[in-house]
Amino acid sequence: MGLALTARDEPRTSGAEEVSDLLVAAARGGERAWREILDRYAPRVFALAKSRFQSSELAEEITQSVFVTISTKLAGGEYAEKGRFEPWLFRVAMNRIRDEARRAKRHARPTDPEAFGGVTAPGDASLGENDDQLASLRAGIAQLPAADQEIIHLRHQGQMSFRQIAELLDEPLGTLLARHHRALRKLKQLLSVSTESPSP
Q1: Which range of residues forms the domain containing residue 92?
Q2: Buried b vs exposed e over 83-114: b needs ≥16 C-beta within 10 Å?
Q3: C-beta separation of 49 from 59 below 8 A
Q4: Among 6, 62, 69, 65, residue whose Cα is nearest residue 32
Q5: How many helices (H) and strands (E) does the chain have?
Q6: Mean pLDDT of the 160-168 span
Q7: What is the CATH number of the domain that holds 23?
Q8: Vertex 43, ends 67 and 54: CA angle to 5°?
Q9: Residue (of 87, 85, 71, 89) closest to 27 by Cα position
Q10: Which of 12, 85, 136, 190 gives the lowest tally of CB atoms within 10 Å of its CB?
Q11: Would you say residue 158 lies in a domain?
Q12: Highest mean pLDDT among 4-13, 124-133, 149-158, 190-199
């Protein structure tokens, strides 16, 4: 009857209701709805993956894999929208990222912070004078415990709210806020040490 298409063309409310409508339309095969889901969320998943691996090619591969999974589960009725799409989406993304991290560790790729910080991903060349700052930031994040890295990546690259991250990681909101604060404090200390100039 074209109900999904008609609903997509009408003015709609923002937030959870809009996402829910998009998901219903996408599950029914609505290409426009699926494109809008990709436009909204794929850049965030890509940024999250790239912040973890510093490789545009790998981040693209992970992003595609995540949305193939999401599409399959939506089409198969394996996800029922209850206002929790983003935590579910990023749970799929984090599982895929963890899988890739385990695979990379088995292949003994360099994890030394100096090597990590020196990697320049495709697309980073335009940063110019910010290259050193970016490398220092990446090296600092790499020195944090894995759980702290995860929180920072989800918040600042995945652009998730603290409430969504708490749901994703199954932690109380207050605990998560405290962990994020401590992680940023540790990172600040690491960066201040790395930028201190030797005394003349």
Answers
A1: 13-109
A2: ebbbbbbbebbbebbeebeeeeeeeeeeeebe
A3: yes
A4: 6
A5: 10, 0
A6: 83
A7: 1.10.1740.10
A8: 100
A9: 71
A10: 12
A11: no
A12: 149-158
Chain segment 49-73, per-residue pLDDT in tens: 988 888 889 999 999 999 989 988 8
Cα–Cα distance for residue pair 93/45, rounded to 1 Å: 7
Question: What single letter denotes the amino acid at residue 19?
Answer: V
Question: Is-contact 153 52, C-beta < 8 A?
Answer: yes
Considering the domain boundaries, does residue 42 fall inside one?
yes
Tell me if 49 sits within 8 A of 84, measured CB to CB: no
22 lies in a domain? yes
Annotate 64-105 with DSSP letters as a single string: HHHHHHHHHHHHTT----SS-HHHHHHHHHHHHHHHHHHHHH
CA dihedral sign, ordered 71, 161, 158, 36: positive
Is residue 186 one of the residues assigned to a domain? no
Token pair for 43: 């850049």
Total domain count, the chain: 1
Contact of 78 with 55, CB cutoff 8 Å? no
Whether the predicted model's global pTM rises above the 0.90 cut: no
Measure the CA–CA gap between 99 and 156, rounded to whole angstroms.
21
- Give 77-88 pLDDT, tens digit per residue: 888 777 789 889
Contact partners, residue 45, CB within 8 Å, separation at least 6? 62, 63, 66, 67, 89, 90, 93, 158
